[in-house]
Amino acid sequence: LSTGAWFDPADPSDPDSLCVHGNPNVLTEDVGTSSLAQGCTGAHVLVQVEKYTGVLPPVRAHQPPVVAPR
Questions:
Q1: How many CB atoms lie within 10 A of CB 8?
Q2: Which of 17, 18, 21, 62 has CA atoms 20 to 30 A from the CA of 54?
Q3: Which of 14, 19, 17 is nearest to 61 (CA)?
Q4: Chain segment 8-62, per-residue pLDDT in tens
Q5: How far apart are CA 66 and CA 58, in angstroms?
Q6: Beta carbons of 15 and 32 less than 8 angstroms apart
Q7: CB-based contacts of 32, cutoff 8 Å, min separation 6
Q8: How far, in Å, CA of 35 to CA of 70, rounded?
């Protein structure tokens, strides 16, 4: 599974939101391999794939973030 896409959730307030840029890290758990090594789990997951038939949301991963004024 290729990696490298920036995380770009369609709805940042929803933890189960679709990543419109295709980041595969949304499929794996964010836990270390052990309490000693703390390596990444890698891209070893079992998933069920379905064709997405909805309207594709815009990819915003390469746009600058909104910065709140101080």
A1: 20
A2: 62
A3: 19
A4: 998 989 988 888 988 887 887 777 777 787 777 666 788 898 998 999 889 888 8
A5: 16
A6: no
A7: 38, 39, 40, 41
A8: 39
For the record, the structure tokens of 41 come out as 């789990």
Longest dimension (CA), the chain: 44
Beta bridge partners of residue 19, listed in sequence order: 9
Residue with tokens 């079992």: 46
Q: What whole-number distance in Å separates Cα of residue 20 and Cα of residue 26?
A: 11
> What count of Cα atoms within 13 Å lies in the side-chain half-sphere of residue 3?
8
Q: Are 42 and 28 in contact (CB under 8 A)?
A: yes
Distance of CA 52 to the CA centre of its chain: 16
